[in-house]
Write a structure and sequence with these properties.
The protein is α/β, with parallel strands linked by helices. Helix content is 46%, strand content 14%. It folds into two domains: 40 residues; 166 residues, Ribonuclease H-like superfamily/Ribonuclease H (Nucleotidyltransferase, domain 5, 2-Layer Sandwich). It has eight helices and five strands. The longest helix is centred in the last third of the chain and has 30 residues.
Length: 251
């Protein structure tokens, strides 16, 4: 018995058959059925192999290296957590346009899976358009095969940051810092409906009334509107120039 326990500790990936074989090789008269009974009596078992996590991130995908160049160029997303007055945990999904700093999604729920992320993004894509890239950490919701395959089908490139480097997803981290300081730390949530109502009001305030120092103290909605107007003016200028040229060539 003592020797069997020693062998089991020394070789934790061996089952009772292989341990029995070692005992026989050492000269013990150990029948397999007896080893099995002792094995069960001592509660021995081979530890299950832990599933390895996929690590997709590299530092080249960090916000300090791959910067957004226009609206809908790079979005970022992440999760933040808080609790109700009774201690139940809530989870928020945020999606930020890194160029305009707009909070595009701020979804509160008791739990959010990769399927919920797909549903939220599909609705957002229909309203806002499809971004070129989405930046995230290596959370399981963001590295799920189904989500990555769906993003690939709609033409969105994923920018996964280096594991253990949250600063590389700095726009999401900055938003969560403001959201926690100005909302979560100030409000008491009595239930999910309460959390969703306060969340919607907070998102509206952040986008339409909160001045952003990084945008010259404009609101994110105001800055986004200015970007859209500028892009529209640039798009119409070639058409106007072509019309003038066409008029000049008419007999």
């Amino acid at each position: 018995m003592k020797r069997m326990l020693q062998l089991a500790r020394a070789r934790p990936r061996f089952g009772y058959r292989r341990i029995g074989g070692l005992l026989v090789l050492e000269g013990w008269r150990a029948g397999l059925s007896r080893v099995f009974r002792l094995w069960q009596r001592e509660g021995l078992k081979v530890p299950q192999k832990k599933r390895k996590r996929r690590r997709l991130g590299v530092s080249a995908n960090g916000c300090d290296r791959r910067r957004a160049e226009s609206p809908n160029d790079v979005w970022c997303w992440d999760f933040i957590f808080d609790r109700t007055s009774s201690g139940s945990q809530f989870k928020w999904l945020s999606v930020i346009d890194e160029f305009t700093r707009e909070c595009l999604v701020l979804k509160a729920d008791r739990g959010i899976t990769s399927d919920d992320v797909v549903d939220a993004l599909a609705e957002l894509f229909a309203m806002r358009g499809v971004p070129k890239h989405i930046r995230s950490d290596n959370g399981p919701e963001f590295t799920a095969n189904e989500l990555l395959a769906w993003l690939g089908r709609v033409g969105v490139s994923t920018l996964s940051i280096e594991p253990g480097s949250p600063w590389e997803n700095g726009f999401a981290e900055n938003f969560h810092s403001r959201f926690r300081d100005e909302c979560l730390a100030q409000e008491i949530f009595d239930g999910l409906d309460d959390a969703r109502a306060i969340t919607a009001a907070s998102q509206e305030d952040y986008n339409h009334r909160r001045p952003q120092g990084s945008l010259g103290f404009q609101t994110t909605a105001g800055f986004a509107a200015a970007c859209a107007a500028s892009a529209s003016a640039k798009a119409s200028a070639p058409a106007a120039h072509a019309a003038v040229c066409l008029g000049q060539t008419q007999p």
